[in-house]
Every structure is written in structure tokens, then in C-alpha cells.
Amino acid sequence: MTSVISLQKLAKHYQVPEREAGLKAAAKGLFKRQYKNVKAVDEISFEIQPGEVVGFLGPNGAGKTTTLKMLSGLLHPTSGTASVLGFEPARRSHDFLRQITLVMGNRNQLSWDLPALDSFDLQRAIYSIPANEFKSRRDEFIEILEVGDLVQKPVRNLSLGERMKMEIVGALLHKPKILFLDEPTLGLDVTMQKRIRTFIAEYNKRYGATVLLTSHYMADVEALCKRIIVIHHGKLLFDGNLSQLAEKFSAFKTIGFTLDNSNVDLSQFGEVVSTDGARVVMRVPKEKTSAITSRLLNDLAVEDLTVEAAPIEDVIESVFAVKKEAVE
Amino acid sequence: MKRYFDIYRSMMKLSILEQWQYPVANYFYMIGMIAEPVIYMVVWSTVANQQGGVVGGYTPGQFAAYYIVWTLVRSMNVVFTPYGWEWRIRQGQLSMSLMRPLHPLHSDVAYFAGWKVVVILLWLPLAFALTLIFKPDLNPTWIEIVVFFFAIWFAYLIRTMTLTLIGLVTFWTTRVSALFELYFAAELILSGRLVPLSLMPAWIQDFAWFFPFQWAFGFPIESLVGNMTPNELLRGLGMQLAWIIFGVILVNIIWKFAIRKFSAVGG
Asked: In this predicted complex, what is the ipTM?
């Protein structure tokens, strides 16, 4: 299958002026400026197939948004190549822009003072969407997101979550084949996050769209993405599925069991993460999981013992803790 | 072409709807803007009266006509400023705009054109009130009215191009306000905004001919209140068109370089 997104050693470097604090350094900087070369994205390569939903993870400043901006044509790469739907994004051809969308959780493109319906009509004109098609798709999205009672209110009167839903409707009206979603659920409550996740999944299913998603909410990633790409310090750190990520980066596993006698010292087995009545959850070093499980079964009267990979949040924390030198 | 017509119509409609949300704010803005020409009008009328009723060929009634028309031309001159470019880059609004299959210049031209429709409607009662107070001497011919109609829209396009060019400097420096202030000072003197250009020394008038300022300000006013011949009127429209075409070409050339420098600092 031909990939719809392809990156070959894609890099973006910035020349960032830097100086020490104080007047003396400021005066010196007038005559001789010092710059630091920052490698925001450092020769990353990957390919994405049509219809895939890929989680693009990394800590703040890892290079996720810079990569999305290069893939959507906002930034010119310093080196390397990127191809999206066969187009070179930096050329920003209108045929390319008509087939993609970029949703940023903290940005908006709807008119603040008017009902979203007015802004949707502008999208129709800009993307030359035939009137019938526009109306049916708009109504379809409004129905799925259950925002029928909101589209006639000025956007400024909507809550953050309601505004985000409108932004997503506006961004998808032209039926893009590629969705670049940068923190689409940023700052939203759990219910709203879930609604937006469901909508993205539904859009992907109905239209076969390819999705590249960044999010700091692991629930988004777990619910939507079979494949994860992790970027850290501008470099590609991991490309695979969630369980492989846990296998590679988590130093721990979680053992859950129900205990007959709660007056037992469990510290000899591992770290107790939580207890709920007789139910205990422990965190143990990955390499000692088998041995500890055997000991628990032999030494204690336990029931319903389960061994699971560490929660995704813990895995991601381990990944983000990787030092820069380790990814050079 | 049909697509662009649809985009312009939709964008202008959006702009008109937005501006009607704040009619009072728009009115206050226009009333504030009127203070400047009223001061000029009073000063020059006083000077004219002290010099036997005429200064530089202008009577108080002609000054009143000049500065009342000035208020409309000034409103037509309001476009997206370099400050706006700074703002849209820092706020990340430009990134969202660049994601559309449409040059942002189209959005700006269409949006502010819609705003002008509201401005013209709001200007009419103000002009009526100023006319009652200052009694302008204004007797335009039909050809002058037709030329004036085109001249104010051409003026709008010229100023859009010049300020867009300055705005594009933000792609290199992020801050461009100092350059805009310099432009503004030159515009004040060479456009006919401070005083009709015909009252300026001959060398300034000659100098001004090489810049776009008077074609975006003085010429539209003169086309209605001056006694220009049909040839002068048509030549003026020709000069305006030439500056628009030159501006569009220059904006497109610089845009190609500017967009490569865009670092999307604001998102």
C-alpha cells in the first residue's frame, strides 16, 4: 500500500539569539549577537498508510508541533523531505491544502462574534463545497456532535468545549483526507474529551481519513491510536503499537490480586500502589515479575491475580524521562 | 473567477454581520476620527478669512468640502495595519489563515471591503451633520461623482498593498511598528491628509508624485471637490490602477520570500 505521509530525514533547525541577563550583556549584544542552533526536529523518518490513526507523542518541546507544521505546509524544513498525499507540503499548493486540515486545541478560525453557522458558510465558499454536499455534511457533523442548539449562538458565548466542537466541524467540512490534530482536547472536561474522541473515530471510519494526533491525554491515545510514534529532543524514539511501547520503555509491571488476610507485610514483594478493601495493586520490576508472582501464589492466599503492563501514563513518563544524550 | 466571487461575497457578508454587532463602537470610532479634519477645517477657514476669504485658491466653503470628503476617504483608508500582522503572527491566527487554500491578501481585502460598506452607511448621517454645521461649497458633476466612487475603492486597494508590504516585514523582524511610524509620517505630509497638496510648496508636490500616498488620499478628495478636467480625472484613475498593479506584483514577489521565513512563533 502506498503511504500517504512519508518523511525522510526531515529536520527543522532554528537560529535562536541568546545572551546572558543584564545591561552589560544587552549592550554587548547590540554589536555582536550570539546565536544558538536549536534542532527542533532532527532528521526523523516514518511513513503512515491511508486510514491509519497514529498517536504522535512527546514531552513539551519535543518537536511534535513543529513536525505537524512542516507536514501541513506552515514551515519549510531545513533539510530532508516530506510528502503528504504525494504533495510537497512546503509548496502549499491549493490542491494539497484542500485535502488536509490542521486543528490546534488553542487556536480558532471561527468568527468570535457570530454564530458558527456563518463561519461554516465561509468555509463552504473557500473550499468550493457544492451547496447540497455542504448542507448534508454540516448537518451530519452537527448531529453526531450534538451541537444543534449551539450553532446559532455567537461563538463568544460558547464554553471552551463547545467552541472546540464547532472548530472541529468547521475544520472537517471540506472532508479532508488527512487530519493533523494538535492537542484537540486540550483543557476540556472528560465528557467533552470523550465526545470529541468518538467523533474523530467516527470520521476516520466513515471517510477512511488518516489521522496524526498529538495529545497529552493518554485516554485520547488509547482510545484512538493503534500505532504510536514517540519523538523526544527532536529525534524519533519509538514507532510501534502501545503494548510494544510499554514493553520497551516500562521498567515495571502491575500485579493485581485479592488477599484473604489483609494483615500481611507486602513490602517484601514490591511497591503497593493502591489498596481497595482486599484488592491490592502492586508495581514490580519487569524482570522480577514471574518470580514475584510465583512467590505471591506460594506464600499468600491470593485470588484473582492479574499481571498487566504498567499504565500508559507511567510508560510515557519513563519515555519522557529519557535524557537527551540517550537519543543522540 | 466564480469561486473568488463567492469567497468575496461570503467574506464581505461575514464582515458586515460582525461590524453590525458593534454599531455604537464603530460610530464612536468615526466620531473620534472626525476631530482631526474639524481642527484642520477650522484653522484653514480662519486663515482664509484673515486673508480676505481665500488662501491658496481655497475659500472656507471649499476647505469645508475638502475636509468633509476627507472623513470618508480616511475611513476608506483604514486597512489591516502592520500592527495587525504582528498580532496575527503572535496569536497564531496567521497559521490558521495559511491552512486555507486562499492567499491571506484575499481575505484581508474582502473582509475590510465588507467593513467599508458599514462605514459608508454610518458616515452618511455624520456627513449630513457636518454639512449643516460647516456649509461646504461642493457642486460635483456626474463624471466627478463616478470617478470619486472608483477612486475611493482604488485608494482602499493602494493602501492595502502598501501596508501589506510593510506588514510582510514582520516575517523577518516580528516587530515592525517603527517602520510603520516612519511610513505614517511621510504619508501625513505627502498624501494631502494634513493639508491639500496644492497648498504645499511646488517641490513637495513634485516629490509626492513619485509616491503612492496622494493616490490613496489626496486624489480621491480632489476628484470630487477640485476642478479637475476629465483628462486629469482619468489620468488620476490610471495612476491609481498602476499603483495597485505594482503593489500586487510586489506583494506577491515578497510573499514568496516571506513565507519561507515564517516561523509560526505564535502557534
From this structure: 0.87
Q: Is B163 exposed, middle or buried (0-12, 13-18, 19+ CB in 10 A)?
A: buried
Which residues of chain A neighbour B13 with C-beta distances below 8 Å? 118, 121
State the CATH class of domain A5-246.
Answer: alpha beta
Question: Do A118 and B21 meet the contact criterion of CB atoms below 8 Å apart?
Answer: no
> Tens digit of pLDDT for each residue in B141-188?
999 999 999 999 999 999 999 999 999 998 888 678 888 889 999 999
pLDDT reported for residue A327: 57
Neighbours of A156 (CB within 10 A): 12
Q: Mind giving me the DSSP string for A71-121?
A: HTTSS--SEEEEEETTB-GGG--HHHHTTEEEEETT---S-TTSBHHHHHH
The amino acid at residue A151 is V
pLDDT of residue B229: 93
CATH T-level topology, domain A252-309? Alpha-Beta Plaits (3.30.70)
Instruction: Provide the whole-model pTM.
Output: 0.84
State the smallest CA–CA distance between residue A109 and chain B in angstroms.
6
Domain ranges of chain A: 5-246, 252-309
Nearest CB to B11 within list A76, A104, A122: A122
Judged on CB neighbours under 10 Å (0-12, 13-18, 19+), B179 is: middle
Contact yes or no for B6 and A125 at CB 8 A: yes
